[in-house]
């Protein structure tokens, strides 16, 4: 178990503050993209990911999974990708997904803001597999609502096991929860004497 670290006040968000939210390892989710590319080599794979942080994380995960080919990106990501590169975060070969012919990028990966994968912008790609990287993709109804064929449960928020482990480690005297599913987390804290 954890050795408690003295903590008087702990402020937490609880976006995924319910036991049902247990995110799979990121590497498994990215492995599903690689597997889908093997199953559908003629189709472009468009991954919706927020421009700041999430897109670069998805790129790094793809590189760690062995994807060495260029990754195509929506224009909204280009400046942020350059910033990451300038700060020493290697993203590998990145190309703009602009000016491409119709039915382009079969067997390739493109990353764009989530709104773009359902927009006119995406129509130029070869029978695209729409993917979206978000912790909310654990909720199948959300994936269906967004028209996501390949939901990727990749989140920047702590899931239930991470939240509860942090509270066990810190054993705070006082807890402030800013937003999310606070009722489940508050009940868990009460049951665990916090």
Global Rg: 19 Å
Helix share bin: 25-40%
The computed structural class is alpha/beta
Instruction: Please count the helical segments.
Output: 6
Low-pLDDT windows of residues: none
- The fraction of residues assigned to DSSP E strands is 15-25%
Characterization of the model:
With 194 residues, the chain is an alpha/beta fold. Helix content is 33%, strand content 18%. The protein has six helices and eight strands; from the N terminus they run E-H-E-H-E-H-E-E-E-H-E-H-E-H. It has helices spanning 26-39, 54-64, 75-86, 140-145, 160-170, 182-191, and strands spanning 9-14, 45-48, 71-73, 94-96, 109-112, 129-133, 150-152, 174-180. The strands form two sheets. The chain has a six-stranded parallel sheet with strand order 4-3-5-2-6-7. It has a two-stranded parallel ribbon with strand order 1-8. Helix 1 packs across helix 2 (54-64). It is elongated and about 60 Å long.
Helices and strands in order:
Blueprint: E1 9-14, H1 26-39, E2 45-48, H2 54-64, E3 71-73, H3 75-86, E4 94-96, E5 109-112, E6 129-133, H4 140-145, E7 150-152, H5 160-170, E8 174-180, H6 182-191
Parallel strand pairs: 1-8, 2-5, 2-6, 3-4, 3-5, 6-7
Helix pairs in contact: 1-2
